[in-house]
Specification:
Rossmann fold, 5-stranded mixed sheet, binds adenosine-5'-triphosphate, 8-stranded mixed sheet, binds magnesium ion, elongated, BirA Bifunctional Protein, domain 2, alpha+beta, 3 domains, ATP binding
Length: 415
Amino acid sequence: MAMQAPKGTKDLLPMDSYKWHYVENKFKELADEYGIREIRTPMFEHTELFTRGVGETTDVVQKEMYTFEDKGGRSVTLKPEGTAPAVRAFIESSLYNEAQPTKLYYFTPAFRYENVQKGRLRQFHQFGIEVFGSKEASIDAEGISLAMRAINELGLKDLSLNINSLGCPECRKKYNDALKQFLQENYEGLCGTCKSRFERNPMRILDCKEKKCKEITKNAPTILDYICDECKDHFEELKKYLQAMDIEYTVDPNIVRGLDYYTKTVFEIIYKDLTVCGGGRYDKLIEELGGPDMPAFGFAAGLERLIMTLDAEGLEIPNSSYIDLYVGAMGADAKIASLKLINNLRKKGVKCDCDHMNRSVKASMKYANKTNCRFTVILGDNELQLGTAKLKRMSDGEQFEVNLKDLDSIVELLK
Ligand code: ATP
Ligand code: MG
């Protein structure tokens, strides 16, 4: 039986890898501009990190984690998101003793046992940033500006930015009471999961994807009517900073986000109904996970969703994965010369390849065309004797005579 990849996973095939490089490079380039440095954390963690970090009442923890016992009897979980691991690393390595804020970015796979559908996989990939140590709304605004710019510069122009504030634990308590009062009379109509959320975390009910729960919460009170003055001021500052950077936004009081740790700012970036990026502030998480009382902000963007969207929009993605020069060889001596030539040219930064299939001249040309090589040259006894050869530009067939010893002029020609 032929083996198949597990449901909800995808191979990245060589003809598509340039798209990933393009998207990853864009995020990396901007992270560099913003003075954000990379962090890499393990693919799995102690399960408790996520039950505590992501929150026991979330879909991620209740339904979606890849949790298993290792051979030593420990419960471990494939990371469903990147924030809790980054916080764990920050605390474990005492990065809070360094100059603050600590600005981190990561690329990571994430694993969630979800219903597989368009833009929803079981292993997907995220670019994320986390900024620890500043409570200022300017951090939130800067993070949002990075996400908006990166996605914009990838070519997706019609982005909607939706923002909301979830307040601090005090505001949340007041709001949860009001929400419970509102939901009380429809309690029986809620789904099983939401019934269990009712006491522990009623706000999470607003994020339920079940139709009947959505219907019940349609006219629920909104958190923005319950946030305290400090949280309100923070939200107003965020808006001011966004305006200062010419970033348009919509306030959407229904954004809750799928993870429990958020406080104050939450936001989503949406492109044609698809959430491509989400994040916010989580001022209590570092302390919750055993670190000092330090505020934090972060977001994650889904790379599959972005690439899928770029494809669907037919946007041109620069492809620099093609070979500059393909060297064919007629005969054993020419093969040696061709290996030598490409070896020396590669040391000068030229992307080149030689024939490894014993191809005829015609077959070499066909191959070069098919694989989008920019130039080809065929070496034979004649070329070896004269020390010169003709480089053929594949786009228009024009030929250029070169001295095979004069590598620099070949490099120049291939530029
Ligand atoms: P959604 O509401 O779409 O389920 P989420 O709130 O679970 O998203 P986060 O946990 O904040 O999302 O993850 C950030 C981003 O990662 C999302 O905006 C999305 O682009 C992407 N993402 C989340 N889950 C998946 C998935 N199962 N498959 C592909 N991409 C995903
Ligand atoms: Mg989700």
